[in-house]
Amino acid sequence: MSLTFIDHLALESSDINRSVRWYKKQFNCEIKYQDSSWALIRFDNISLALVTPGEHPPHFAIVDENVRRLRGQRCTGMELLQV
Predict the structure, then answer these.
(1) pTM of the full predicted structure?
(2) Which CATH number fits domain 5-70: 3.40.50.150, 3.10.180.10, 3.40.50.11720, 3.60.110.10?
């Protein structure tokens, strides 16, 4: 199986505002979205979603142009969501 690309990773943060400030200071990135429960930070090759524990699940998002071939395939503990 080959993937088109990984769109973003979502990591938990107990303080979204503080985490966004840290990433902005440390790296050359763009804040695409931010509110009190999550933020989306764009780097050249990937995006990072910072999520509040309990509000949004930690996850990673894969973009695959041929998602239909994945129908019926599951790995233990994983769920395929098609958007």
Answers:
(1) 0.73
(2) 3.10.180.10
